């Protein structure tokens, strides 16, 4: 079990490694390369395996055919030789001839007339018998019988000598033509040495000896005593073997030769298109050692098939020689055809692999691009399906998911906006309810009457009339209707009047510093955003004291954004107080204190977006900085369509 577990673990690691390495490559390359590699390896294996098997079968058949061809040629040559050997045996088996030879060998050189008569009679019998052996054999050039003391020629019935003669008997006795047959002890010997030309002549007068002949010799012995009587020899024209019919088939493929020590003795059905036997002594020596073989050699930069088989008891060979390029031309044609088919198959497989892989990778790339777009917030992007495969189904599911997600986002977004509208409407309703406790018109008119009565009693302006006048102006500014955004100057005037009213109860006034870097008459801001901030400073930063306190309002513009900085030198806030207020601003949840700040921040964000609103920083004992970020507007806008409030806000 432990061994099986180790195998499974190793298999899992190997699969993980291979998968990890493969996934480093794109799907297009991975599929294309693997598909091509698989097809190419299969095609190469099948092509070359088939060609190898075909070539192997061709070589086997060629070897078998060549071996049979050489063997049949050798047998037919051997049959021809046996015909001549049988003729020699007929001479050997003629008891009259053997007796005549024995009698002549026994006669002395100085013969009596009776002995001479016997000698001549025996000589004619022997030589006429030699002539009769030649009958019906046109290729026999000469037949002789050579004893240790003389030579016998072919003689016709009329006594006319035919054939040839040995001009130098002494030289003949020393040559292999006389010695080798004796070593064979009565077995036939075939010789093709070039020395034949210098030994055998047509007659004593000719200069040149016989050419293009093969000599067959046999030693003749006395049957009873086994005494050596002489050598029977046949000079045979080489063309005797040319008449042999060989199963060569197409003679353009190769040549069949009878090879001897001196080279080519004769050939059968020759072709000039096929190679000839080379004159290489080392090759013949090698043939003598092997006796029989089929070899592939290189000769004159040409691949040659050489097959040979030695004729028994001779130094001659039946030899077949052919060009391998010619013999294997059909095989080479098949090979080239296989290569062309392989190339065509590879090209076709590459095209098929490319388009099949492209049909998989391209839709995946398109789906990936659409996913990136939706991931970046473009939920309207959709995958365009153009197929019926699994990727198409995946694209359909993605489109459905994107559509559902988009609808869900719209629902959540609209629900949140509706919730915030309701919340703001509720707060506006609360504010309206508070404002409605005192009718602004009634209050303004009443204050105006009181101011005139005070002026009448005081015979002119007094602090009381001035205070009533400031408060009346403050109420009048709160009754403005129409567009809910006002100019920056109006907003600063409202805040200034509010501070004037507040300062009536302080002996030492809270100072107000105004700094602007923009045209405050052409820049518009929402109503009631400065007064709540100043009120927050008066109530929480200064408390009841006013000595040495100030509020600074600084406005500037940068990158189409209006920056209004409201800064005081009050008590400031601790870190936990500041953190709690900042959290309340981000969540739009009003704490127990600073309700006005949260309301201002909420109205700005609802109307202009999340990138605008209030930014608060504070240092204990040094004061608080509240920066209002607004878009730079040069026209009035109606905020009631967004906030759900009333014109009074």
UniProtKB/TrEMBL annotation:
Pfam families: HAMP, HATPase_c, His_kinase. Its main location: membrane. Residues 358-410 form the HAMP domain. Keywords: Kinase, Membrane, Phosphoprotein, Transferase, Transmembrane, Transmembrane helix. GO terms for molecular function: kinase activity. CDD domains: HAMP. This is Sensor histidine kinase YesM. The chain crosses the membrane at residues 33-54, 337-356. It is found in: Membrane. PANTHER family: SENSOR HISTIDINE KINASE YPDA. The keyword RNA-binding does not apply.
């Amino acid at each position: 079990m432990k061994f099986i577990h180790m195998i499974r673990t190793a298999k899992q690691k190997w699969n993980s490694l291979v998968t990890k390495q493969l996934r480093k490559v794109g799907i297009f390359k991975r599929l294309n390369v693997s598909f091509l590699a698989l097809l190419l390896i299969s095609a190469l294996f099948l092509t070359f395996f088939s060609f190898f098997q075909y070539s192997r079968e061709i070589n086997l058949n060629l070897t078998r055919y060549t071996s049979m061809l050489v063997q049949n040629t050798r047998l037919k040559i051997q049959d021809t030789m046996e015909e001549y050997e049988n003729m020699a045996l007929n001479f050997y088996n003629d008891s009259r001839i053997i007796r005549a030879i024995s009698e002549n060998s026994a006669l002395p050189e100085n013969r009596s007339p009776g002995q001479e008569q016997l000698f001549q009679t025996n000589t004619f019998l022997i030589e006429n018998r030699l002539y009769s052996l030649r009958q019906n054999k046109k290729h026999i050039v000469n037949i002789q019988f050579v004893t240790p003391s003389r030579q016998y020629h072919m003689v016709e019935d009329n006594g006319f000598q035919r054939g040839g003669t040995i001009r130098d008997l002494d030289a003949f006795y020393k040559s292999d033509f006389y010695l080798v047959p004796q070593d064979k002890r009565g077995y036939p010997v075939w010789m093709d040495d070039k020395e034949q030309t210098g030994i055998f002549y047509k007659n004593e007068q000719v200069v040149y000896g016989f050419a293009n002949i093969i000599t067959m010799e046999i030693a003749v012995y006395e049957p009873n005593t086994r005494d050596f009587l002489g050598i029977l020899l046949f000079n045979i024209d080489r063309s005797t073997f040319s008449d042999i019919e060989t199963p060569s088939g197409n003679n353009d493929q190769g040549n069949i030769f009878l090879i001897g020590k001196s080279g080519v003795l004769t050939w059968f059905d020759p072709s000039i298109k096929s190679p000839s036997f080379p004159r290489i002594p080392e090759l013949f020596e090698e043939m003598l050692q092997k006796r029989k073989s089929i070899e592939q050699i290189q000769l004159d930069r040409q691949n040659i098939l050489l097959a040979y088989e030695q004729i028994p008891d001779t130094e001659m060979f039946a030899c077949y020689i052919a060009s391998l390029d010619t013999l294997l031309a059909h095989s080479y044609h098949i090979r080239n055809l296989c290569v062309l088919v392989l190339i065509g198959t590879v090209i076709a497989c590459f095209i098929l692999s490319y388009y099949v892989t492209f049909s998989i990778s391209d839709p995946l790339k398109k789906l990936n691009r659409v996913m990136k777009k939706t991931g970046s917030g473009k939920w309207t992007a959709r995958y365009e399906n153009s197929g019926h495969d699994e990727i198409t189904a995946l694209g359909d599911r993605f489109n459905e998911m994107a559509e559902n997600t988009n609808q869900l986002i719209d629902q959540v977004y609209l629900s949140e906006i509706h919730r915030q509208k309701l919340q703001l409407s509720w707060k506006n309703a609360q504010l309206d309810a508070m404002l409605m406790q005192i009718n602004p018109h009634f209050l303004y008119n009443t204050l105006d009457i009181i101011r005139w009565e005070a002026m009448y009693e005081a015979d002119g302006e007094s602090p009381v009339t001035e205070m009533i006048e400031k408060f009346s102006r403050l109420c009048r500014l709160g009754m403005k209707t129409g567009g809910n955004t006002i100019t920056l100057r109006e907003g600063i005037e409202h805040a200034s009047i509010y501070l004037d009213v507040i300062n009536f109860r302080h002996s030492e006034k809270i100072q107000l510093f105004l700094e602007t870097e923009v045209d405050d008459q052409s820049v518009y801001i929402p109503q009631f955003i400065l007064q709540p901030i100043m009120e927050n400073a008066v109530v929480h930063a200064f408390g009841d004291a006013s000595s040495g306190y100030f509020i600074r309002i600084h406005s500037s513009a940068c990158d189409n954004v209006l920056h209004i900085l409201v800064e005081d030198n009050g008590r400031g806030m601790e870190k936990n107080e500041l953190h709690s207020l900042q959290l309340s601003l981000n969540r739009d949840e009003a704490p127990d204190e600073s309700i006005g700040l949260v309301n201002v921040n909420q109205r700005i964000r609802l109307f202009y977006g999340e990138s605008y609103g209030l930014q608060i920083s504070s240092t204990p004992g040094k004061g608080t900085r509240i920066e209002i970020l607004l878009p730079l507007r040069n026209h009035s806008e109606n905020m009631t369509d967004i906030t759900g409030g009333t014109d009074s806000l």
